[in-house]
Amino acid sequence: MMTNQGNRVTQGQFSFLPDLTDAQITAQVKYALSKGWAVSVEYTDDPHPRNTYWEMFGNPMFDLKDPAGILLEINNCRKTFPNHYIRVGAFSAVRGVESVTMSYIVNRPKKEPGFGLIRQETDGRTMRYTIHSYATDKPEGERY
Amino acid sequence: MNDTNNSTNVAVLADDAPVNLEAEFEASNVKEVLDKLDRELIGLKPVKTRIREIAALLLVDRLRKQFALTSETPTLHMNFTGNPGTGKTTVAMRMAEILHRLGYVREGHLVSVTRDDLVGQYIGHTAPKTKEVIKKAMGGVLFIDEAYYLYKPENERDYGAESIEILLQVMENNRDDLVVILAGYKDRMDKFFHSNPGMRSRVAHHIDFPDYSAEELLHIAKLMLAAQNYRFSADAEKAFFDYITLRMKLEHFANARSVRNALDRARLRQANRLFANASKSLSKTDLMTIEAEDILASRVFIEGKLDSEAASTQ
B299: part of which helix (H) or strand (E)? Predict the structure, then answer.
């Protein structure tokens, strides 16, 4: 059964939609800036859903007024890592929230091989299940 | 998304369709800003003329767009030169607002920086620092005060050149995203441009701020006082005019800034005078009015010396 056609990694916002265009990304960033959130760009080549901490591409950008600066940084990151997952996060520093309030993927590898299901037989007839990304069979940096 | 689609959705007008420059002018609200500029900035004829020209160009450009007469976005990077206190920073602030009204910049904020904010302290520090400032200024105006400090030819290991390089790149590639305004004293800026020819050619508008005349300075002084709810008595006005005339001949004269300092000192003396006659009950007018004696007590009159000079020798 294939519920996720094309093995596209779905995490964060908008991940079931077609890839966002630059204009759509700009609009989203503009929304984040209007809320006073600090926008950051992160990348990784390990698509496992529990891989929470991605590498930061430069520092989070505080005190920006216009999305152009962030789009510039996104494009820089795309140029450096054309075949990595790149996401944009927006951090809210409001007391009591103090966490990422928006996160969406803006770049993904051309070919996403997807995940395999691994079954582990343990005590008795108990089965344990986990998933494994085919991409991570290769060392970091050579995956896509 | 709408932003990018707008330009394609707008119907192109027929070749003989009339357009109304007046209406467009009214709609942009720019008149209000220009009037404010006229009202609040005294003198500065060449500056105002140039701002009007730029405003006119941007308005005409808008009309041309309705006929699909595309032209490249004009470069609006500017260079303000002039003596201290001639209003460079004030005009830069207004510029951001005007360009925003005309739709040339998207946000219309002003990021004011000096060398410290752009140039780093060690290798590899400058580029991220400069880029961060540029990103902050995007959608608005980046104002670099005392820009000539960026380039220090006597120290070949200075990181200023790196900062200039990044600026040049952004000024060329992100013309739609930000406007860079450089400011500094005339002679030093000339030297700066001389050693950075790339910068000179990328800055389209070189605006020279003239010194103020004594009448203009008096006018400025009255505006400054009005903003702080003070006013001159008739005698004080005459005294202040004499003060300006004398002060202009002394060294370190910084136009409007000197006027502001002189007014601050006059306010001190006024407060002191009121305090000395504390027994008398005071009216609102007393509290608002600066008398001739508050101004005539200045060292400029008595010894022909600067007030600050006298203070430091005491």
Answer: helix B299-302
Give the integer Cα–Cα distance in Å for A40 and A92. Answer: 11
pLDDT digits (tens, 9 = 90+) for B248-283: 888 888 888 999 999 999 999 999 988 888 777 888
Percent above pLDDT 70 for chain B: 93
Task: Check pLDDT > 70 for residue B122.
Answer: yes
| Strand A115-121 to A127-133 pairing | antiparallel
Cα B262 to chain centroid distance, Å, stands at 21
- Partner-chain contact A23 B1, CB within 8 Å: yes
- What does the pLDDT read at residue A144? 81
Compute the distance between CA of residue A127 and CA of residue A122 in angstroms, rounded to an integer: 6
Tens of pLDDT along chain A (144 residues) come to: 456 666 788 889 998 888 999 999 999 999 999 999 999 999 999 989 899 999 999 888 998 999 999 999 999 999 999 999 999 999 999 999 999 999 999 999 988 888 889 999 999 999 999 999 989 999 988 888
Between chains, do A24 and B1 touch, taking CB under 8 Å as contact?
yes
Instruction: Say whether A65 and B109 touch across the interface (CB within 8 A).
Output: yes
> Do A59 and B138 lie within an 8 Å CB cutoff?
no
Backbone angles phi, psi at A91, to 5 degrees: -100, 125
Angstrom distance (rounded) from CA A67 to CA B3: 13
A66 closest CB neighbour out of B1, B106, B128: B106
How far are the Cα atoms of B28, B31, B33, B44 from residue B39, in angstroms, in the given order? Answer: 19, 12, 10, 12
State the amino acid at position B200 in one-letter form.
Answer: R
Beta strands in B34-184 (DSSP E): 78-82, 110-113, 141-144, 179-184
Helix (H, G, I), strand (E, B) or coil at B27: helix
Please tell me if residue B138 touches chain A, with a CB cutoff of 8 Å. Answer: yes
CA distances from B256 to A82, A103, B150 (A): 54, 50, 26
0.90 exceeded by pTM: no
Tokens, residue B276: 């000395």
Task: Write the secondary structure of B46-58 as one string of H (helix), E (strand) and C (coil).
Answer: HHHHHHHHHHHHH
β strands within B118-191, DSSP E = 141-144, 179-184
Closest residue to B140, CB basis, from A59, A65, A73: A65
Closest partner residue to A69 (CB to CB) among B3, B128, B135 is B135
Bridge-partner residues for B146, per DSSP? none
